[in-house]
Amino acid sequence: MSGGGFNLQTHTAVTGLKRKKPSGESGFCWEVQTQRGVVKARRVVLATNGYTAAVWPRFQGVVVPLRGQVTAQRPGKAMPAGGCLPTTYSFIYERGYEYMVARPQGSRFAGDIVMGGGLVRAPDDGLMEFGTTDDSVVNEDISEYLRETTGRYFGPDWGEDHPEGRVRSEWTGIMGFSPDGLPFVGEVPGENGLWASCSFQGHGMVLCWMCAKALVDMMEGRDDEELGEWFPDVFRITEERLAKRFQGRLY
Ligand SMILES: Cc1cc2nc3c(=O)[nH]c(=O)nc-3n(C[C@H](O)[C@H](O)[C@H](O)COP(=O)(O)OP(=O)(O)OC[C@H]3O[C@@H](n4cnc5c(N)ncnc54)[C@H](O)[C@@H]3O)c2cc1C
């Protein structure tokens, strides 16, 4: 897709990124290798979250992929039709957590209970889920655990399972975790023209929009007092933060 100077190449993996000496008047100094050819650019943004180290190896051990798992469950027969929970819930225990969201009234599959988490219920506290980027499969131990959570949390209010079965759907996705539990936003130190906004842990839906806005402000030379008023400095990429190695989830 292209237009107005904008060109979007979907389903096109970046297979390599190289810094070159700036060439000619264009000043292109980055070469992005893709499955469909090379893109030359003055500036490159890594918006690759948990996969960032695959594109720029300096993030290896700094932004670590972690596979998360979710189920969508048809409500049991004793549950009110069309949704019953006005808010979302988190169940936090010593080493882990689950979260629960009911599909709201008027939405597709209203009343379905979406349960995610359960990582530590897999063997070795879910160790095998760290460092994996394969979101085409689910972890059977976590599936089994998540499936049981609704009956347990709702108790008799759940009732018999829906005749079509409890689990409507389940899937995995890849998150990006950092040593200090914070995103990386800004120019990569020492790499003129290489920018990043990544590593949102399990909270990217609430963070990535404004991090993108902050990144654009920085790239466009608006890294000023106004940005400082709302954008947390601790999200900025620094040598010190890049030198730390991931030791485990902080939450
Ligand atoms: C199971 C699960 C539950 C979550 N729950 C919540 C929640 O409740 N609340 C919340 O706020 N957040 C939640 N998140 C986190 C949130 O989904 C992410 O933080 C958010 O999607 C990050 O957005 P992003 O665009 O930075 O990265 P992503 O959505 O991961 O996008 C990265 C993109 O980069 C592309 N990419 C990677 N490598 C390459 C390459 N080499 N070449 C080309 N493209 C590449 C990928 O295909 C992908 O499209 C959850 C995530 C998961 C997996």
Automatic annotation (TrEMBL):
Pfam families documented for this protein: DAO (PF01266)
Residues in FAD dependent oxidoreductase domain copies: 5-218
Any one annotated GO CC term: cytoplasm
Name of the protein described by the UniProt record: FAD dependent oxidoreductase
Organism: Parathielavia appendiculata
Organism taxonomic ancestry: Eukaryota, Fungi, Dikarya, Ascomycota, Pezizomycotina
